[in-house]
Write a structure and sequence with these properties.
Layout (H helix, E strand, L loop, with lengths): L8 H10 L2 H10 L17 E4 L6 E4 L1 H9 L11 E8 L2 E3 L5 E3 L3 E8 L5 E6 L4 H11 L8 E3 L5 H4 L8 H6 L6 E5 L8 E6 L7 E2 L2 E2 L50 E2 L2 H4 L6 E4 L9 H4 L2 E4 L12 H8 L11 H9 L2 H7 L34 E6 L5 E2 L11 E5 L4 E7 L9 E8 L7 E11 L2 E11 L6 E9 L1 H4 L6 E6 L5 E9 L5 E8 L2
Length: about 525
């Protein structure tokens, strides 16, 4: 201000009157009377000074808010909020050679502002008629279900009240909107509008995101938190039948977090559609960048979904129900199938010893072989039990079906055969043990031999361990344990290790195998061979 000493207010006024607007602004800035920069009151970002072409004046513009105003795809309004909407026209006049003004094409704009939060939107529109503006109003506002709407657009009043929202993203696209993002739709009038992501660009646009399937543990697969396939997906109360969230009207998740959590909105079961599009998108991508980050996009164009009820719910519920693989394993069928091969197994072992089974003292339970014939056992031979983690051992009764916590059936066939299906779907159990023990008829004579191995057949992997007592004057006792996994067909997670312990005692014997590492969907088995 030192260089203004002696300059009075009348002098400044007189000087300003002699200068153009731009020169006056420059003069006042040079002397510190006007700021050379301004911050946006909304986002606190430095604004840009733009000189107007038609006038010798300048205006301030925020580069962030102005871009967001046109690009923004959010929904404004909400319970307790008041929203104001209006339209306006922008026009300019150029001067021809004859110095007469000539009109230039008008540009209509339409926008709204949430008077509570300050959030707003603006769109360039071709015209101000109802068919153009109404889809924007209905997709951008909570209106009837959340916010009072203040407008002087009287000609819309009668059209807004009886109708609530666009039925789909396709309807929004047909209304002229071309920017993908979050909108509100209402497929049926009996339910309030809800937010969805609309892809208005791919394959002609008009695609509605109805669901996302997000894997929270690629190693665990279908573990706790997976709403489509675990207990959070209603399978816990339906024994994992096909009546889960693929086929019902449950909703979960939020559209903004569709890439970080499972998501399903009411359009899944209420929006009538004809075709399907599927995207592959990395985890945790921002919803605004969903399309640009998709690694794969593929879609149908035949209108096939109309033939299956028009919704995903109808498709999976009425035509293609999802059957969880291996979770409802029929262990009885497996044992019966094995028993159909028992004659072939006996034929492969020269002089196979057909042992005799013995009922316990109560006469109604088969759980051991007392002698087996020819002093194969002394008493209490071939007793089975299993154990999960640190729980108590569970004794196994022959020919009794066990359904929890494992599916198990031990058949008094020749050879003796026991199969145990390990679901362990949540992979909560770390270790499963299977043991056979008893008193051998060898009474300390003879010798023992043990070995392990594995084999593969197509998608099946089998690992086994056996322990054999032989060389005495009694029938031999060969205990064979195994597990089978199938990654492709059973979705198995095989044990990280299959360990075993076998006693070298030919009098009181015991053989135990142990599946470690939280195995899932595997078959453990035991077979008794003798000659």
């Amino acid at each position: 201000m030192a260089n203004l000493v002696g300059v009075t207010l009348p002098h400044l006024v007189e000087m300003g009157a002699l200068l153009s607007d731009a020169a006056a602004i420059a003069f006042f800035r040079e002397h510190g009377l006007l700021s050379s920069n301004r911050l946006c009151s909304h986002c606190n970002v430095a604004m840009v000074e733009k000189k107007r072409k038609c006038l010798d004046k300048v205006a301030w513009r925020c580069p962030v808010c102005s871009a967001e105003l046109l690009r923004g795809s959010g929904v404004i309004g909400g319970p307790g909020h008041i929203v104001a909407i209006d339209e306006s026209v922008i026009a300019k006049r150029g001067r021809g050679a004859n110095a007469q003004a000539r009109p230039v094409k008008q540009q209509w704009i339409f926008g709204g502002v949430d008077l509570t939060t300050g959030q707003c939107f603006m769109r360039f529109v071709d015209r101000r008629n109802a068919s153009t503006l109404l889809p924007l109003i209905l997709s951008r506002l909570f209106h009837l279900y959340g916010s009072p709407v203040c407008t002087n657009l009287v000609h819309f009043a009668q059209k807004i009240l009886p109708r609530v929202g666009p039925k789909s993203c396709l309807e929004i696209r047909q209304g002229g909107e071309t920017r993908s993002g979050i909108y509100r739709i209402q497929p049926v009038q009996s339910t309030p509008p809800f937010k969805v992501y609309c892809d208005l660009e791919s394959a002609g646009g008009g695609w509605t995101l109805v669901a996302s399937i997000h894997e929270n543990d690629i190693q665990g697969r279908c573990t706790r938190g997976d709403k489509w396939s675990s207990e959070n997906g209603n399978y816990e109360n339906s024994s994992r039948t096909s009546s889960g969230n693929w086929e019902n009207s449950n909703t979960f998740g939020e559209v903004e977090s569709a890439t970080s959590d499972d998501y399903k909105n009411p359009a899944y079961f209420s929006l009538q559609a004809s075709d399907v599009m599927i995207w592959h998108v990395p985890n945790d991508v921002n919803i605004s960048q969903l399309s640009s980050n998709a690694t794969m996009k593929y879609y149908t164009s035949s209108g096939f979904l109309r033939n299956y009820g028009g919704t995903f719910k109808s498709l999976f519920r009425n035509y293609f129900p999802l059957i969880p693989m291996s979770t409802d394993f029929n262990i009885t069928s497996m044992v019966l199938g094995f028993n159909q091969s028992q004659s072939a197994i006996r034929s492969a072992i020269p002089d196979f010893h057909v042992y005799r089974y013995y009922y316990d003292y109560y006469g109604d339970t088969h759980n051991y072989i007392n002698d087996g014939g020819s002093d194969m056992f002394d008493y209490y031979g071939n007793r089975l039990r299993y154990r999960i983690d640190n729980r108590y051992y569970e004794d196994v009764t022959y020919n009794r079906m066990y359904s929890a916590p494992v599916h198990l059936l031990a058949a008094s066939s020749h050879p003796f055969n026991a199969m145990m299906w390990i679901s362990n779907e949540e992979r909560a159990a770390s270790t499963i043990r299977f043991e056979v023990y008893g008193n051998a008829g060898a009474d300390g004579d003879g010798i023992t031999v043990a070995n392990s191995g594995f084999t593969n057949l197509e998608n099946f992997h089998l690992q086994f361990h056996y322990n054999c007592i032989y060389g005495a004057n009694d029938p031999s006792i060969a205990n064979v344990f195994y597990y089978i996994s199938n990654d492709a067909d059973w979705n198995s997670v095989p044990p990280s290790s299959f360990t075993w312990y076998s006693s070298s005692n030919t009098d009181h014997y015991s053989t135990e195998v142990q599946a470690n590492g939280r195995p899932r969907f595997i078959l453990m088995g035991y077979m008794l061979l003798s000659k």
